[in-house]
Amino acid sequence: MALIEEMDRSGNWLFRWRSFLPLLLFFGAVPVVLWGDVMWTPMSEGVDGSWLWPLVCLAVAMAGQKVRGLCVGFTPRGTSGRNTKEGQVAESLNTLGMYSMCRHPLYLGNLLMWLGIVMYMGHLWFAVAFLLVYALYYERIMFAEEQFLRGKFGQAYLDWAAGVPAFWPALGRWKSPEVGFSLRNVLKREYNGFFAMFLSFAWVDGLHGFRASHMDGAFFSSPACIFQDFWAYALALAFAIFIVLRTLKKATKVLDVEGREYV
What we know:
Helix 4 packs parallel to helix 7 (183-216). The chain has helices spanning 3-16, 21-35, 52-73, 105-121, 124-153, 155-163, 183-216, 229-251. It is mainly α. It is built from 8 helices and no strands. It has one domain (3-36, 52-251).
């Protein structure tokens, strides 16, 4: 098998299973935080310097959520496929909005969301390793996607790709989409990832707390001490939003928007 065919085949395989990659990060945090050389400071009851790093990490992750929201909110129906079983589907080529600045903005959003969580683990070399693995993993997926789009749209795709960077956005190239921004479409498609982000932050924070309390023996007398109020309240709020939006999606058509992706 030629190398280009092997890369396309492996990229499509990774594309189908890309939703499970966060699980590796979720469970990979356990040995890193519990036994690694990490930097972590508990957040004080009052807002002070101890809040700076957690808020920076959260801001990076929320920036990724915003990038994804801009992609989804301006995406017309049929421009991209998100089904992991059927593979890649596209009825038209999306070249506006976030796609006018970079060719793979959703993966840029994913990177920022996961990077914020990895930063909060507090292990420099794990963060470096994460960036390398992410680059290798998604390079194959992006290659396979571009092979698919090139085969389907031909010269139109080549003309668009020639002037738009693959990953890092060219901020001055923004072109307004033909459809308006749909917050309902964002809420319908992004509530899972939003909740998973806060769950992951709380998980990492709990691991930090367990490590700190286990070292001085406090965990065995008061297990609840591993959870900091900020992340506990943030997770509770994210869970409430998750339940409301999931109920609206499954039981009503409130979040349906004509001409958008109903997935």
